[in-house]
């Protein structure tokens, strides 16, 4: 009997897409995550510089989110060594396991597939590219900078984004990622930092082209809060416009946008220093981008942070793909 389950591909990175992958993995779909390999901060950044390897952190987050292992096993996989552990300080067990698998296999995709089996992942996880990428940004003031963490720390408005490999050449996407995208019924972008988690995948030329040509329903999960510099003053339509501009097509069909007002003083801006303000809605400007917004209270508050409800987002995505 032919498998009638829809093919859903989620593209992004950071801590954003794992928040919905955890719930999507339990839906009756064929789920694939395509994950950025341009991160250069934290434990990932240290291992990347020290060992010259593909960044691990975003892939590890997705492995945890899509794993069906018991919580005790996942807690060990996510265990982070304490600050006074010298060489191992700040590193997670998962990052070190991925580093070991990469050294054994000599190939990041093979390493991820090995860990998918060990972690009993429900679905597929592919790095966007089989090598580490560098993100470069040109800001609206004309200056340019390279590096994911440097771009975030600059707190400047971004005009254009692009990626390159270690030699400065135009990268090629992983063939398995392209295949998943071309066979998708629904492609989900985000949630996550627009310019440093979502867009680095889409500006890989052949990957962005595949998304446009796939014929899939493209859904953007809009952030609830703006990020200093990167998206300061952005409305929901500005986020979609930036995606369309950098890919070169008006390709986003739907946007899931939180319309729940964030209570005053409920966000800890000292702890989450990259945040600025709640994203404002602009349905008329959305029409100009040929994008249909879906406004609902997709937000939950936790530990002084405003995050999307993975369950609500998953439910809405299932409605859209089943009505496609």
CATH T-level topology = Rossmann fold
- How can the largest sheet be summarized? 7 strands, parallel
Tell me, briefly, the overall form. Answer: globular
Give the % helix: 25-40%
**Helix/strand/pairing class, anyone?**
alpha/beta
Strand content: 15-25%
The second-level CATH architecture is 3-Layer(aba) Sandwich
Mean pLDDT score, rounded?
Answer: 90
**Radius of gyration over all CA atoms, rounded:** 19 Å
- State the total count of DSSP E strands: 14
Number of DSSP helices? 13
* Domain unit count: 1
The CATH class, by name, is Alpha Beta
SSE order: EHEHHHHHEEEHEHEHHEEHEEHEEEH
Question: In which order are the strands of the major sheet placed?
Answer: 3-2-1-7-8-10-12
Uncertain segments of ≥5 residues (pLDDT<50)?
none
Alpha-carbon distance between the two ends: 22 Å
What's the CATH H-level superfamily name?
CofD-like domains
Organism: Acetilactobacillus jinshanensis
Subcellular location: Cytoplasm
Family: Belongs to the gluconeogenesis factor family.
InterPro entries: CofD, CofD-like_dom_sf, Gluconeogen_factor
Task: Give an account of the 3D structure.
The chain has a single domain (about 5-40, about 125-320), classed as CofD-like domains (Rossmann fold, 3-Layer(aba) Sandwich), CATH 3.40.50. The two termini are about 20 Å apart. The strands form four sheets. It has a seven-stranded parallel sheet, sandwiched between helices. The protein has a three-stranded antiparallel sheet with strand order 5-4-6, covered by helices on one side. It has about 325 residues and is α/β, with parallel strands linked by helices. It is built from 13 helices and 14 strands.
């Amino acid at each position: 009997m032919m498998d009638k389950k829809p093919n859903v591909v989620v593209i992004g990175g950071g801590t954003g897409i794992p928040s919905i992958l955890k719930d999507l993995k339990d839906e009756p779909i064929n789920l694939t995550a395509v994950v950025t390999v341009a991160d250069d901060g934290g434990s990932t950044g240290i291992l990347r510089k020290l060992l010259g390897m593909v960044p691990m952190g975003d892939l590890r987050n997705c492995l945890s989110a899509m794993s069906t292992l018991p919580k005790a096993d996942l807690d060990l996989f996510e265990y982070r060594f304490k600050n006074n552990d010298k060489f191992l300080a700040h590193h997670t067990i998962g990052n070190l396991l991925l580093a070991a698998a990469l050294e054994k296999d000599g190939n990041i995709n093979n390493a991820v597939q090995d860990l998918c089996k060990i972690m009993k992942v429900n679905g597929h996880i592919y790095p966007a590219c089989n090598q580490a990428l560098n993100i470069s940004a040109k800001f609206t003031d004309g200056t340019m900078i390279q590096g994911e963490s440097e771009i975030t720390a600059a707190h400047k408005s971004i005009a254009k984004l692009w990626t390159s490999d270690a030699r400065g050449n135009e990268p090629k996407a992983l063939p398995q990622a392209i295949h998943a995208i071309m066979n998708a019924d629904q492609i989900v972008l985000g949630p996550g930092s627009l310019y440093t988690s979502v867009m680095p995948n889409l500006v890989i030329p052949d990957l962005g082209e595949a998304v446009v040509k796939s014929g899939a329903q493209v859904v953007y999960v809009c952030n609830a809060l703006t990020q200093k510099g990167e998206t300061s003053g952005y409305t929901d339509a500005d986020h979609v416009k930036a995606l369309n501009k950098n890919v070169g097509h008006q390709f986003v069909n739907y946007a899931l946008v939180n319309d729940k007002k964030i209570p005053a003083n409920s966000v800890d801006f000292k702890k989450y220093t990259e945040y600025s303000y709640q994203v404002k809605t602009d349905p008329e400007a959305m029409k100009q981008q040929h994008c249909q917004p879906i406004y609902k209270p997709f937000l939950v508050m936790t530990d002084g942070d405003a995050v999307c409800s993975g369950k609500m987002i998953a439910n809405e995505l299932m409605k859209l793909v089943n009505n496609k």
